[in-house]
Amino acid sequence: MHSAYGGQGLEDEDSGKMAQLQGRMGRNFQVMLDRSVPHIGRRWALFCVIVLIYLVRIYFLDGFYIVTYGLGIYNLNLIIGFLSPQTDPEADGPSLPTKGNEEYKPFVRRLPEFKFWYRSCKAFVTAFFMTFLSIFDVPVFWPILLMYWLMLFFMTMKQQIKHMIKHKYVPISWGKKQYGKGKGGGGAGGSVGAN
């Protein structure tokens, strides 16, 4: 219902402008993310800077260990997703070839590298801003949290490595294989496509 002074119309106009600004900022942010996809080294360097800033802040504040512990658990979960195949070989059967004459199927991650990077960065930035709120600074004995996190990390990694060995997959690739390069490399004349 509109008032006699037109107050409702101004509120609708302001919310419309705010929605437009939000949409424009969201699109600009998405364009920036899309442009960063091929720059893996730069993205991970940015991640290292974010982590370093967070760790320096935690060191000087000498607190927020619960936030850091939660951040560590979340990132451990992301690492597991990054190292795991998209389909579970135990539930769906083997998706990777088990014999030499079967068709090659590349390793597909449950959590792709870009999403892993983006979620980790977002988690560290969120945790950084949480350190400005004293409600999250719960006094705890941090060595116990560290020991518990290390125990979780090693137990989880042990289980993940056993899974990788059992199902014969390696979640890390070092790029595309190149044939014909180096000493004694295949074919006459070197690389493919060279005339």
List the helices and strands and how they pair.
Elements: H1 7-36, H2 40-61, H3 65-83, H4 89-92, H5 113-130, H6 142-167
Helix pairs in contact: 2-5, 3-5, 3-6
Distance between the termini: 77 Å
> With helices defined by DSSP (H or I, 4 residues minimum), what is the helix count?
6
In percent terms, what proportion of residues is strand? under 5%
| Run of helices and strands | HHHHHH
Mean pLDDT: 81
Structural class: mainly alpha
Radius of gyration: 25 Å
Described by strand count, sense and barrel closure, the largest sheet is: none
Number of strands: 0
Estimate percent helicity: 55-70%
Enumerate the spans where pLDDT stays under 50 for 5 or more consecutive residues. Answer: 184-195
- Principal-axis shape equals extended
Write structural notes for this entry.
It is found in: Membrane. The chain crosses the membrane at residues 44-60, 66-83, 140-157. It is a multi-pass membrane protein. There is one protein chain. This protein has 195 residues and is mostly helical. The chain has a domain at 15-89 and 108-167. The protein is 61% helix and 0% strand. The protein is built from 6 helices and no strands. It has helices spanning 7-36, 40-61, 65-83, 89-92, 113-130, 142-167. Helix 2 runs parallel beside helix 5 and helix 3 packs parallel to helix 6 (142-167). It is extended. The termini are far apart.
